[in-house]
Amino acid sequence: MKASALVVLQVVAPxxxxxxxxxxxxxxxxxxxxxxxxxxxxxxxxxxxxxxFASGTAGHQGGGGAALAFFLGVxxxxxxxxxxxxxxxxxxxxxxxxxxxASYGNTVMMGIPIVLASFGQxxxxxxxxxxALHSMVVLGVATVLAEIAxxxxxxxxxxxxxxxxxxxxxxxxxxxxxxxxWSSLHLPVPAPARATLQMLxxxxxxxxxxxxxxxxxxxDARAGWKQTGATVVLKLAVLPALVWAxxxxxxxxxxELAVAVIAGAMPTGANAFLLARRYATGAxxxxxxxxxxxxxxxxxxxxxxxxxxxx
Length: 311
Fold this sequence. Notes:
By secondary structure, this protein is mainly α. The protein contains 13 helices and no strands.
């Protein structure tokens, strides 16, 4: 248990350091509001699309069973959260962001080092199968819902036209679509182009976390705490439980099951906050979910890693 906690802490510490740096930059006016808007725009318009296209055209193989169990769990939770939010009277935009916060995890910045340290190269190859589609699928669906919510007061035909137009102007969605088409045609990505995309994409997570820290200036932790609490429980407890149940039913190997569950147990990823800021819907709640779930994941991930290590 102590060894597992140390692995998680070593990964989580830099995340909090970047968030703290963003908060200090805003609190001490080292970077003004316009500067943070520029950083947000860079992350959403350039870095995130580059990351999505690079990962979506990488052509990873293996780990398909674990990926299927993971995405079935994500799909069930996403749909269930949408239905629950609708029953609670949440607007579509806020409801979509709640579902995103509950189902989208930090599988890259935290997932890769934790899985590599705990399960070695065998575990990492399984995780890569999940990573190849994770952002493409979850962020793609969330973007479509956000566009529908943004234009929901329009007449049906206008709603369709406005939604499709918004999606066409959305760099994240277009990167997902381009990656799907590129992969379907089995087209190669030239090495210099892939290297450029990977360099740009590598900036996404730290810039998003830095902007999250900047948004914490004047943040009221008491506002929306019930929704934040529910989101964190769904992300850290319900999603990994769903993935575990599906994986057991599919009779996955021990390594595949462990990696799929650990991927499901990752805290809310900063990309969810980035999308919420883009559509000015639920950004405070999304930021709180990233922060709180990351803190609590030190405990939940340590328990899960100790459990799988003991088997």
